[in-house]
Design goal:
The complex is a heterodimer. Chain A is α+β, with helices and mostly antiparallel strands. Chain A contains 4 helices and 5 strands; from the N terminus they run H-E-H-H-E-E-E-H-E. Chain A is elongated. Chain B has helices spanning 17-21, 24-37, 78-87, 113-116, 134-139, 144-152, 155-165, 177-186, 207-214, 216-230, 244-259, 290-298, 326-330, 332-338, 340-344, 377-384, 418-423, 442-456, 462-479, 487-501, 505-509, 512-530, 557-561, 587-591, and strands at 9-14, 44-49, 61-64, 68-70, 193-198, 234-240, 264-267, 272-281, 321-325, 354-361, 367-372, 394-399, 405-408, 432-437, 567-568, 576-577. In chain B, 38% of the residues lie in helices and 14% in strands. The radius of gyration of chain B is 26 Å and the shape is globular. In chain B, helix 6 (144-152) packs parallel to helix 10. Classes of the chains: A alpha+beta, B alpha/beta.
Amino acid sequence: MAKISIEDLKRIKEEQRGKMVLRDGTYRAKITVHMGTCGIAAGARDVMTAFRDLIAQKDLTDVIITNSGCAGLCSKEPMVTVELSDQSPVKYILVDKEKAARIFKEHVMQGKAVEEFALARGSETTAT
Amino acid sequence: MCASPSYRMQFMLCAGTGCLASGSLDVKEALDRELAKRNLQDEVQIIMTGCNGFCAAGPIVVAYPEGILYNRVKPEHAPLIVEEHVLKGRVVEKLLFKEEAAKDRVPLMKDIDFFGLQRLIVLRNRGLIDAESIDDYIARDGYAALAKVLAEMTPEDVIEEIKKSGLRGRGGGGFPAGLKWEECRKYTSFPKFTICNGDEGDPGAFMDRSVMEGDPHSVLEGMAISGYAIGAEQGYIYVRAEYPLAIQRLQKAIEDARAYGLLGEDILGKGFNFDIAIYPGAGAFVCGESTALMYSIEGKRGMPRIKPPRSAEAGLWNQPTNLNNVETYANINPIILNGADWFASIGTEGSKGTKVFALTGAIANVGLVEVPMGTSLKSLIFDIGGGIPKKRKFKAAQIGGPSGGCIPSGMEDVQIDYESLLSVGAMMGSGGVVIMDELTCMVDTARFFTDFSVEESCGKCVPCREGLKVMYDKLTDIVEGRGKEGDVEFLIELGHHINNTSHCGLGKSAANPVLSTIRYFRHEYDAHIRDKHCPALVCPDLIDFVVIEDKCKMCGLCYRNCPSGAVIWEKKTVARIDLDKCTKCRTCISNCRFGAIR
């Protein structure tokens, strides 16, 4: 490590902050891959990997990827939910690597949902 | 840390002393193994953080991005966590923290009162950064305050800012930090020194340890800023040798900071030189006193000396020296970055900012908490602390360690700030809070703290060396049944003498535990002396070990638990205790649910 200047300090901060964004609770987009037994069997793992690679390629720090359980529509797995900070979540069905790439490009990056793959917008109504 | 941005999940595993002791390293190994087995090591990152504060429920794992807190995690839970949480995205219900009163398990950190009601300034990075990563610290605005100070502020500006913030010394005395720095700046003799007092010695206190272990750079940065303000180029951290992990983490932090040039010569290219060395103390309580501490660093016997001259004028090696506590230094970065007005807006008129407390004793959530000054004791104990376990009653809170005092039940509404605590006979101290329930004998408690002070008295001045011993002997007489009329008056008089005529801060407050328990629990002293009975059933010589027939429910618990076969009991009969066999171990008392033994 070399002696650093104030500018270096700022650079380190920005770089490292990207790696820590998961803990901050501040992000622009959240991609949830539904990974119940059904999802995993239908190939959710490949979809997850595809999203992770895309995020890494673009060096994004404000997009997080997470997983959740079965969304209840096992016949349409793998399913993915994309949530932008200022929009209601969109659920996609029968996602594969190629679809993931398009969803990433158009929805996550450009903010426009890919309607032809989408199942619904919004969340389920729950008792609470 | 070889972090790749494509981690999708981070497990923050607490590696403070508390959680290490309850096995967090084993949990880490088990998680590592399990992740590797499923080839997930590139997706999930495990980060060892400093103390989370929630020591009672350790080892703690917080899973991000969701922020789900798992408590009491054991190595054998690793497969379950990986299978359910990582692979399937399902929360592992059985490892969630459950509040004593609440029925439902509450998973999110911010929803748990223990965390939700705290305000973190000193502990701002707890559980969020890798304690050994300088980059993690920098990412959360670490060293930005040092950069700001060096680039934009004169030493006088810095002192003015700290004065305006109202920050007072967190080591116990509560002296305004800005004034201390200003005083030290005035003297022109060089070299000057700035010292961090990490000789945390109060029974039950572990605030400073947690900061040094969990966020060591925040201490280094605060010290560097104070060095700049007073004109010092060398700092010392005096840490007790009983804190090996703190020493290790501080050492690593100093090395990393030097490598970045954040310590050393020409820091950040701004022409300021400053370096820090660690001095491990040998475990004498008195070395937490500033002048004794400085003698100890010089290699001399740790004994306080007469002031003046103050350390600001003639401290370490007779040179101008500034000394602050760990927590005080950890406050500096946020004050510089957010401004004095921001800091002064938190807290009360005379006490600004927050205070970290170590909550111990008869309390559900043993741990480390940081609350704004002015928070009520009640909120600290019952909301954040989760109340008294086993449905017992709150009796008193001992605040301020061996120099502090007890605050009895009925006075829980007292605000926590320097002045309010003094007005009820306790003191802020360094932040140890020992909660006592109805099974605590106050005379015995006073004796415990006096015993501590007798042990730790350096012996330099008579009132503390001899007076405390006499006080201890008198208390021993009382708890062993030899107390007589006039003893309490004697203790009060002796206590005032010790407090008024001792030399250093420790002696001046050493009688406080006795004086404050007499003030609020005089009836307990009287019961010991006149009735030869300990109302809390703690002092073995003052318990009759007789079963109260009306209260006995004939359950036989005393009979089953007595280790010496001294309880005579059959089904549907009242128990009796054979005093010839009884060893007064109190097992029957702690097992009786009906208070039927006196």
